[in-house]
Structures are given as C-alpha cells and as structure tokens.
Amino acid sequence: MNDTEQLRTRVRTLIRSLPGAQREFAAAIGLDETKLSKALTGTRRFSPHELVRIAEYSGVTVNWLLNGSDDAHTVTAVPAPAARPESDPANHTGSESRRRILETAWSLIAERGYHRVRISDIAKACGTSTAAIHYHFPSKTEVLNEALRRNVKLAFDRQVAELHAVPGAHDRLLRLVELQLPADGLLRAEWSVWLQVWNEVALEPGLRSLYTDSYDRWYLTIRMTIHTGQEQGVFRVADADAATAQLTALIDGLGIQVLTGRPGSSVHTMRAHLHDFIARSIVKGA
C-alpha cells in the first residue's frame, strides 16, 4: 500500500469512527461530498487546506494522516509532547465538546484579547454553562495554555500539509515565510494569540516552559530548512544557527509591526523585507 492509499485509509477510518454519515463529515470540514468521495477513491488528491481541516475536525495531526504517527520524521520540526495534543483517532469523538469550546475560546482571545474574555463569555458563545467550560479547562490560564497549543498544532499541520511535497529548500523556506505572514483571517488570529502569550510569559515566568517548547518547534523548522539548503548547495550561509536566529527575530519584529499598525508596515512590505534578507544573507551568504 503506497502513501496515498494509506492516507485514504486513515481518512476512511476517521469517518467510520464519527457519528453520522460521510455527508456529515464532508459538511463539517467544508468540503463538497462529491469531492470527498473522489479523494477517497483516488480520482483527486486532498488539498493541503483539506488535510488541515480533516486533522482539526478529527483531533489528529496532518503528520498522522500522511505518515501514521504524530512523531514521524517530516519536513518540519515535530512539536514537543507538552506543546501539542496527541492524536487519538480511536476516541476523538469523546473530545468533540472540548474541541468546540477550545475553538471558541481561541477565537474570542484572538478577537478581544485574553484579559477581556471571561469564562462566562466562552460559555455564552458556546451555548453551554460555565461549569462545562471548567470541566475541560479548570482555570483561565489553562484556556490560554490550550490556545497556545492550538496555535502550535495549526502551524504544524499547515506546514506539513504544504511542505511535504516541496523538495527544494529555497522554495520551502519561501513557503514557510508565506505561511507565517499575518494576513487577514486565520493567520492574523494566530499572531494575535501569540502576541498575548508573549505578554503573559514576560509577566509570568511559570508559563515559559510551554512557550519555549512551542517556539522551539518553529525555530527548529527554520534551522532544519536552512541546513537542508546548505546540503543541497542552494544556501551559502556559513552559520545556520546565526541565520535562523536572525530570520526568526526579523519575522517576529515585522509581524508585530504589522499587527500594531506601524505606519508603512503591511503584509506586502513584510514579505518583501523577508525575501530580501533571504536572498542577501542566506542564498548568497552573509
């Protein structure tokens, strides 16, 4: 059985483990049922976006979908266990309520700010009680921790889905940059959550361990890609660690400028600055 057939088998397993028919699964992930059927029979491929939606809805990672394990070696660094939820395809239906609460809380935090969101706000948006929220998240701090873990999982899923078929390190690095730009929608919401995590970590040292595990995954992904480019002979940078530190710091700083509305900053200018840095300091070498 090849990798594509194994992927289809895993998706079928997820569909069978959920209540309802294939039609409901397609609707839940925002995919036309006919397209889902064609993907399951091999007459079309799942798109990266579809893989991310399947993973998010089903409580697994894209790495599990593609490679059969959360920890399988792939083109991007795997999150530390403490910084990610574990895939549990046999029992993900039992966490449907928790998933819905977390998605709601994450969206509210991204939109309003952590300190402006109360447990009662999350309960109201979910149409449930505060007791139900506390059953899954004993404290508001735990809500923020899980929001961070969701950020990590979303980024990991998106990167594996988008990059697993991109062999060239240069193209892969440029795609990583594109996936990290705070464009409107999901990516901007992820950046909003990150900004609030940074603020809380600066004030509360007890949160730093989870933050470090989470940020290290992104840092290691950039370093892996630069190191691969060195091996492929397309990156002439002498020190992959130094280049990684510089590039990630530049991404962080430019992203903050975009989110805070600094005059002259935009996703377009952020992209241009990053492409220029990569061309001058990594492709040609500092």
Automatic annotation (TrEMBL):
SUPFAM superfamilies: Homeodomain-like (SSF46689), lambda repressor-like DNA-binding domains (SSF47413), Tetracyclin repressor-like, C-terminal domain (SSF48498). The keyword Repressor applies. CDD domains: HTH_XRE. Residues 95-155 form the HTH tetR-type domain. This is TetR family transcriptional regulator. GO terms for molecular function: DNA-binding transcription factor activity; transcription cis-regulatory region binding. PROSITE patterns: HTH_CROC1, HTH_TETR_2. InterPro entries: BetI_C, Cro/C1-type_HTH, Homeodomain-like_sf, HTH-type_TetR-like_transc_reg, HTH_TetR, Lambda_DNA-bd_dom_sf, Tet_transcr_reg_TetR-rel_C_sf.
